[in-house]
Amino acid sequence: MKEKLIAMTSKQKLIAGGVIAIALVLLVYFLIFTGFSMADVDKAFAKGDNAKAVEMLNKMVERGDTAAFTRIYDWYSKHNDKSGISRVLRVAAQKEMPKAMNLLGQLMWKQDSDSAKYWLKKAAETEIQQYIFEYADYCRVTKDRSEFFKWMEKAAKGKDKEIAGNAYTHIGMAYTLNDNDDEKAIPYLEKGGKLGNSDAQLYLASIYHDTKKDDEKFIYWATQAMNNPKSSKENKNDALRYIANNYIEKKQFKDLEQLVEKGIAKGIPHAQFIKGVFYLTGNEELGIKEDDDQARQWFLKAANEGHDMAAYNLAMMSYEDNNIDESYKYMEMAAKNGNKKAEEMLQELKIVYPSELTNKAYTSGFGSGSGTYYFESGGKVTYIGQHDYGKWGVTMRWSYNKAAQCYFVSEVLALDGTSYSAYDFLGERIYIERDGGRLKISGISGMSGLFRRSE
What we know:
alpha+beta, disordered N terminus, four-stranded antiparallel sheet, 10 strands, disordered C terminus, 13% strand
């Protein structure tokens, strides 16, 4: 061997020397450009040299550093750098970092279904329970039934109880909602419910109440959902409502009262709403007398927590008290929270002005019969008057706000059966027209040019 080395030609020596030189250059390059640590990144950020810190993190990701990936991904997310996020996810995913593969799959979900499935499945194959569940959920959404059940069953057998409970619940929901097969659904939902999943508990309550007609199990699972510390506010609210409706149907008011008090202690809006109803209507069996002030207090608590019927009741109570400003406010609140009655009422309350008129007016008229009109000016809502459709046409008395004073208008005179006008003692005029079976204000003149008649 020594003889062969000694006998090496000058050409061979030159080649060997070149190889060594290249290796040294690569070593130096690595040490200079990639031989840094997270401490170097921290120093760069501390000096305010974000560009250098980001460059180092990206190079660390390229060599497979998972900690660097997490940090640069968080940095890009914080600065809403979508191109940076996309780039680093692809690099890290190619390095088979589980979190990157999962996130890239999530990112591609709406862009490229095939790519999304590929990366989500790659993440699931790392045997991480959360990623197994997320791939199974993707299969649920994309209606890949066989893959869904296969991977969701696998997620259900993992060590994390919360993920397992969620997986069992999804399987049970698939059977009851998609297949209408409660018998297959119940065992999975019960496993999910026992692991603390409040959705499973609510579904079980619904099945035992509507299908199985088993009050004992219905009350048990609904109570579990109501008392579950992990339940959302919506689930607690729904659970209490299910139980309350059951007690109301059977006129078990003592049980209902106890339920309401427990719900109030937990801050559940529907319990506050029922308490308001107790005071609004009174209840002899419970010894509760009608008390509008108490009713308002409880409705307000529930309305402020998003309870639509509580807001609707407040709106109607305010309307009966002729407090139109509050009535309109609560009606809007009820509609915003999904109350269909309130949405319809708001349409009835509004009078459509011509586009050049900026102040608001609205009515409680319901399309026919009688109604009450209101006018809003300068942030103040003023009662205008009432109309009644009768044998001899329409009669009204009006008032409107001008310089913080109210002026009353004389009776409206019928002109041609479709248009009406009114004069006050100052000579100012309100123009009113029939619109789809009800009246609207089309203009007001004489108010210092504030309004002009709609031509």
